[in-house]
Structure formats: C-alpha cells, structure tokens
Write a structure and sequence with these properties.
Blueprint: H1 2-8, E1 12-16, H2 17-22, H3 28-44, E2 48-53, H4 66-88, E3 94-98, H5 127-138, H6 149-154, H7 160-177, H8 183-190, H9 198-217, E4 221-227, E5 237-242, H10 250-270, H11 284-297, H12 311-320, H13 322-345, H14 347-360, E6 362-364, H15 365-374
Parallel strand pairs: 1-2, 2-3
Antiparallel strand pairs: 4-5, 4-6
Helix pairs in contact: 3-4, 5-7, 7-8, 9-10, 9-14, 10-11, 10-13, 11-12, 11-13
Length: 390
C-alpha cells in the first residue's frame, strides 16, 4: 500500500479493526468515534489513501448470531455510511482500500459500488514480480547490476512480505560480516539448506561450470548467472543470453549443441555420466535433440532444403523416421565427443570455476567471466565442427 501511495505522491493512513479496538476500551460508542476520527482526519488531509488491513475483521451480518448481533450491526452500518460518504463526498479526495485473506467473510454490502466497489485478487508474485520487490527493498545501489532473477526464481511461491524479510536478513548477514552485501547473502535467506552431500554439490558444480565455460569460450552467448542451487529436482542452472539472432548458421547451431552437451561431458570427465542431462524436453538432451532435429527438418541446414516438419512435429518424426533418427543420433554422438574434448582441454578452468561455485552457490555473469579470464582461457573453435552427417 505504501508503494501505491508513493506512486500517487499522496499520504497514507494505515488502520485496522484491531487498531480501532486497541485505541479504545472496546465500547461500541468509542469504536464508532475512532472510525469517525480516522475519516475526519483523512478528509482534512486532502488527497489521501486510507488502508484498512484485515478487513474481514468486520464480520458479515449474515453470519452473526444473536449474542453478538446487537454489537456488530450498528458498527457495520456506521462503517457503510462512513465509507460511502468519504468516497462520494464533496472533496472526492479519499481513496479507500481494504485487504483481506478471506474476502468471502466480508459483508457483501461493504463491497458494493460507492464503498469499496471492486475486489481485486492479488496472487503471490511470480519470479519477475519477486525480482522487482527485491530490487525495491535493496535500493538502486546495493547489488547494483546483479541478476536478481535467479534468487527470485528460487523464491517463487513466497509473498512480498517474505521477500522483504529476505532482504533484511541479507543486510544483517552482511553487516555482521563487516562487508557489503553479496548476492550469496540473499540466496542463503531464500534457499533452504542443501540436502545433498558435498560430493553431489561438487558434481553439480562441475556440470554447470562446464556449460558456462563452453557457452563463453565458444561464443554461444553471454552468461547471465551461474547457480548450483537445488530447485525442484534440478541441480543447478546456467542462465544464458544467446548471441545469435533470429537466423543461425550450422556452425553456431553445433557450437550451441556442444555447450548444451558440455554439462554431460563434465559429468564424464570429472566423475561419471548420470541421468541429470536427461528427462524432459527442456533437459540438456532434450534441447540438443530438438535443435538437431530442426537442422534436418526445418532450418535448411541439413542435407535437404525440404521443410519436413516444425519443431514440435520433428519430435514425432524422430519416433517414426529411422533415417532422421540416425542422422540426429550421429550428430549427437559426434558433438558429444567434441564436448568431451572441449572439457578436457579446459579442465583447469572448469575446475576453478566449479570450486568457486561450490562456495558461492550462485555467481553473476561478470564474476563467471572474470574467473574464466583469470584462468587464462581463450576463445575456442571446435575442430570437429563441419564434419556433420548431411
């Protein structure tokens, strides 16, 4: 509500039914006088936002029993006339907003036009909304330039109040450590303790670091952030802004696929291959397969100019077209070998980045690029590109 008042550049009066009671002895006439005082003050302030929290504390008259009816009905009736007079008064300078987690318990008469009028359901914020709330409470200078989408993604399902508490906790952690806030301070407030063993966290970090180094050195895109935080069964995330525009060359597609398969290659080089690269269409193997299917079915970058199928239809083609499956499988195997060769060639850089990620849990893109540069890694060109099965 304060954000709304700030946007409108008007003052705000925050009140509640509980506050009306706490300011009086609870007698009906005193409660009515307190309501009257709030709205008299509002009318004298000019344009003002009056916010009544926990609005369902005013019960619906239909739900009242005979024991409490004589107390609540006069108060509710007084609120009805007061709200209507305030909103439709000569000044027209009062904006009235109520908030409730249980709108079904509010007396319907309070929600009619001329009183509150509209009921707006505010769902819990999505990742974009949480990122905006975090930025608002951090201010423009704290974590300036940091990608807040990853911690926001971690916190999806939380309320705005929880996001505010995360910022306060991160500030306290940084203050206790005697240093400026780091993104990890915020992550530690949001993410629950990681149930994985150190070995599992390290393996996930090798996987994501392999992706990141390949994306950067092969010129596939720009690393936005790198994370090994466990999210819904996913052991980490390499968030990338791809360099390629709406058109792609075969070389770029293959470099992209190598970067996607680099995580699995990292699993093999630093440990053993596991199921982490597979699963859904959005998995590493799913994305690599989809891209290479498009090469042969719709992008005109395979052995034919015939448009065989769209991206979604290509998946069905793979199930039934043995020749298409053979070509995609050959490309996948060749590019996975290229990914393994890449990871082996840049093993030291990937290991340095992975061990830094174990400590930080999440790293902004500029820090990832700095670690890669400090390791002495240089842009790479895969010698295996171009040897495709047309």
């Amino acid at each position: 509500m304060r954000s709304i008042a700030k946007t409108l550049n008007i003052p705000i009066i925050e009140t509640s039914v509980a506050l009306w009671f706490s300011q009086t002895n609870g007698y009906l006439n005193e409660i009515i006088k307190e309501v009257e005082r709030v709205f008299t003050s509002a009318s004298q302030m000019g344009p003002v936002l009056v916010f009544i929290d926990e609005f369902d504390s005013l019960p619906s008259r239909a739900s009242l029993g005979s024991r409490n009816r004589d107390y609540w009905v006069p108060l509710i009736n007084f609120c009805l006339t007061t709200f209507e007079a305030a909103i439709a008064g000569n000044t027209g300078n009062i904006i009235l907003i109520g908030a409730s987690n249980f709108p079904e318990n509010i007396d319907p008469a309070l929600l009619r036009p001329g009183r509150l009028g509209r009921v707006i359901t505010i769902s819990r914020p999505d990742a974009k909304g949480l990122a905006g709330i975090l930025r608002q409470h951090l201010g423009p200078d704290v974590l300036d330039g940091a990608d807040l989408s990853v911690p926001a993604t971690l916190g999806v399902g939380a309320t705005g109040a929880q996001a505010t508490a995360w910022v306060a906790g991160a500030e306290r952690r940084a203050r206790d450590a005697g240093r400026p806030m780091r993104l990890d301070d915020l992550i530690r407030q949001i993410a629950p303790p990681d149930p994985r063993s150190h070995a599992e966290i390290l393996a996930a970090s090798f996987h994501e670091a392999s992706h990141a180094v390949a994306v950067h050195l092969l010129g596939v895109g720009e690393i936005v952030s790198l994370s090994n935080v466990l999210i819904g069964g996913q052991g980490g995330l390499t968030k990338t802004k791809l360099n390629q525009g709406t058109t792609m060359t075969r070389a770029y597609v293959e470099a992209y696929v190598v970067s996607v398969l680099a995580g699995r290659a990292g699993d093999q080089v630093f440990g053993e291959v596991n199921s982490g690269s597979g699963g859904a269409y959005a998995s590493d193997l799913g994305m690599a397969t989809t891209m290479l299917s498009a090469v042969h079915c719709s992008l005109g970058l395979g052995g034919t100019l015939v448009h065989l199928a769209s991206e979604g239809e290509a998946r069905e083609f793979l199930r039934h077209d043995l020749d298409l499956r053979r070509r995609v499988e050959n490309d996948l195997n060749r590019l996975f070998k290229a990914a393994v060769s890449f990871v082996e060639a840049h093993r030291s850089t990937i290991e340095t980045l992975a061990r830094r990620l174990v400590e930080a849990r999440i790293m902004p893109g500029d820090e990832v690029r700095r670690v890669i540069a400090q390791a002495g890694a240089r842009p790479d060109i895969l010698a295996t590109l171009g040897g495709h099965d047309g």
